[in-house]
Automatic annotation (TrEMBL):
Belongs to the metallo-dependent hydrolases superfamily. ACMSD family. GO terms for cellular component: cytosol. SUPFAM superfamilies: Metallo-dependent hydrolases. Residues 9-296 form the Amidohydrolase-related domain. It comes from Phascolomyces articulosus. Its EC number is 4.1.1.52. This is 6-methylsalicylate decarboxylase. One of its GO terms (biological process) is secondary metabolic process. GO terms for molecular function: 6-methylsalicylate decarboxylase activity; hydrolase activity; metal ion binding. InterPro entries: ACMSD (IPR032465), Amidohydro-rel (IPR006680), Metal_Hydrolase (IPR032466). It holds the Pfam family Amidohydro_2. It catalyses: 6-methylsalicylate + H(+) = 3-methylphenol + CO2.
Amino acid sequence: MANTTAQFIDTHIHVITKSFLEALDNANGDPSGYAIPTWTVESCLEYMDSINEERAILSVTAPGPSIAGSGAEGRKLARTLNDEIADIVTSNSGRMSFFASTPDWNDVQGTLDELDYIFSTQKIAVGVVVMSSYGDRLLGDSLFESIWKKLNDFKAIVFIHPTSVNISPKFIADHLSQPMFDYPYATSRTAADLLMTGRFNQCPDIDIILSHSGGILPYLAERLCAQLYEGDFNYNGTVVTLEDYKRNLNRFYMDLALGASAPQMEALIVFGATDRLLFGSDFPYASNTWSKRNTAELLNFIKTNSNGRLVDAYKLRNNAINLFKKHSISLD
């Protein structure tokens, strides 16, 4: 039987600071329609202890600093968030790390400047959290090429979190919030965009973590191959081959936040992602009950399913340690 006693390293767990709450309030709430929970250092540590979690890698969730726009206010919010959270993790360095936030990527220069601050000046964050889209642009968009180049120069770990999408009707059944169903699609669309634009191929020194078990990517990745079986794909003069696609598809890491049900776990194993799976809780946006149910599903899969031998708590922990070690970051 697989051992399930290893302590988790949580790569998908959120932090809510005073400045982020104020920005959301100024924008009349989360545009995804999701209710904003409460967060304190104490409640986070209590939650971590309750599920045998050693370290939380905190991040600001969607829409991030974009809630303040793509100008000076967005830049200011990104800097304020990064300084606030740096203070939190510095005071709890044995238990907490963080992915730093960037401004809205449509503010290219502001984003480039913040990346310099994050990696060259502050030097505390273990990577960055970025949203799955900015305005009408997915992450592979040509406008963002210089941002990806700088991330590659810094050999960054990039955590992609889904965000609100502009579709019509915006809400299923009039008021179902987008995180409940649309977010996994948002993650998958931007992952496909990074593959088909060749952007991921141009960044050999970064690693990307996709939220929520990669969304629907494990189910539809082969479908994208159909386009490439017919010939190379050309994006604004950048040629993507079938070999490029398959190689880079197998570089994505995927967290298991709200994505550890047996069907999802089976799909990820068949997908060949066992060395790239990471634990995630989505606390506090996933309630204690919801998040703990997901963790229980994961542990039950490990205990009862024959494929559990391929994924256990030690495997998830070691995957995280090895990923960050690859970028000269120790989580021990």
